Amino acid sequence: MPGAVRSLPITVDRLTPAHLPRRVWRPPGWSGGWHSLVTTAGILLALGGAWLGLQPENVDAGFTRDGYRVGGTLLQREASDTYGGPAALVIVRDTGGVRAASSARLHGIRVRGICYADVSGDSERCLFMFACLSLVAVDRRIPSGWSRHYEEGTDVTITTLGKAITPVPFLVGYPGV
To answer: Residue 174 domain-assigned?
Structure first.
């Protein structure tokens, strides 16, 4: 029927079920604003977790009277500036600065590190080799020790124990191994 007017059965005297106000179940004693408080608290907790996740990891390293400690691992002094145990560390001090080399196993992967700190002790440059890969890190002196920046973007704060220039040729705080 082209051109014919069709009428649809629409009720105008009462609301259809789609237009009726919905009743939302709430536990007894909850007012309408309570869910806003819970939602706001959830958002604040999520933002706090994200902020904590972006903070650089903090690792302790340095000389103690028992040897050289990195994280929870203690390397025993074996000779002058040579330390051994679950990892190995050799330190050479000369007029040009401090050089250090390490060899360790991290999650079953052999990791070797070489670091060089200049005479001023304001910075340290490290090269790490593991799983046929190499990674460069630059450490900058901060009041508590080193602020390490890996070339791929990871940042780590290394708190040094003791007052001497403390080389840290260990791959600490890097998530890729």
So the answer is: no
